[in-house]
Design a protein that fits this description.
The chain is an alpha/beta fold. It has one domain (3-252): Stationary-phase Survival Protein Sure Homolog, Chain: A. The protein has helices spanning 15-26, 74-82, 111-121, 139-153, 216-221, 240-249, and strands at residues 3-7, 30-36, 57-62, 65-70, 92-99, 125-131, 161-166, 176-179, 187-194, 200-206, 224-230. The protein has a nine-stranded mixed sheet with strand order 3-4-2-1-5-6-7-11-8, with helices on both faces. Strands 9-10 form a two-stranded antiparallel sheet.
């Protein structure tokens, strides 16, 4: 039996995580749900709360699944779970289903994606899954795609990370599944919206023009499920910049 950690950045009571967990449990996996107590969208890989203070947790049971809420970020939830704070560490991690797509280069701000990257840093493969709607109607479509991707990633090298963006459509209305690059987008303006808790919040509206045809944003708009393998922070082998800086700093000695 594979132990699956499910987390998110919308909170442990959010409809996306409540839609995803039962689907994964029905596959026969040992499901562990650990997510923030409240909305933590846009926090990236922050792990505030780990040092020098107690971490408050709340657990609720629903249809035989325990949902654990942690007073902290998605990255904190993943770190605690992979260190064995909620029983045996997970074999794989699913982050989502996020309400709203996570697209383009700015996904490093996303708590949903950062949770998956945090899992990889802890030596666990992970998938971040998002649905392209602020008021989704087809959670089941995204949950099904996440389950299929989970089957694939289980046989891949440890530390593999995927981010999936799923149109808010019935399964039979999807255009297909495509590998996608990250759109080189920028933000154009601030817009007001409402958090899953009902509280007002402000989000950034990205540009949606002049997109590469193979980018996640363009393909998602065309009705495709986008799949983008990710890597974490790394160092390029080119040493020229470091050597140039070292030469400049030598004058201060």
């Amino acid at each position: 039996m594979v132990r699956i950690l499910i987390t998110n950045d919308d909170g442990y009571q959010a409809p996306g995580i409540r839609a995803l967990a039962p689907v994964i449990a029905e596959l026969g996996h040992d499901v562990l749900v650990v997510a923030p107590l409240d909305d933590q969208s846009g926090v990236g890989s922050a792990r505030a709360g780990m040092v020098d203070r107690p971490i408050r947790t709340v657990t609720e049971d629903e249809h035989g699944i325990a949902y654990c809420g942690v007073a902290g970020t998605p990255a904190l939830a993943v770190t605690l779970a992979t260190l064995g704070s909620f029983g045996p560490p997970p074999d794989l991690v699913l982050s989502g289903i996020n309400r709203g797509a996570n697209l383009g280069v700015p996904i490093f701000h996303s708590g949903t994606v950062a949770a998956a990257l945090t899992a990889a840093a802890q030596g666990v493969s992970a998938i971040a899954v998002s649905i392209d709607s602020e008021v989704p109607e087809h959670w089941a479509t995204a949950a099904t795609m996440a389950a299929e991707a989970l089957t694939w990633i289980a046989s891949e090298p440890v530390g593999t990370v995927l981010t999936l963006n799923v149109p808010d459509r019935p399964l039979d209305a999807l255009a297909g599944v495509r590998h996608a690059t990250l759109a080189p987008i920028k933000y154009s303006r601030l817009i007001g919206t409402t958090a899953p808790t009902g509280e007002p919040m402000v989000t950034l509206e990205p540009t949606r023009s002049d997109l590469p045809a193979d980018s996640d944003m363009a393909l998602l708009q065309a009705g495709y499920v986008t799949v983008s393998p990710l890597t974490g922070i790394g160092v390029l082998p080119d040493e020229d910049a470091a050597n140039a800086l070292a030469k400049r700093l030598s004058s201060y000695r």
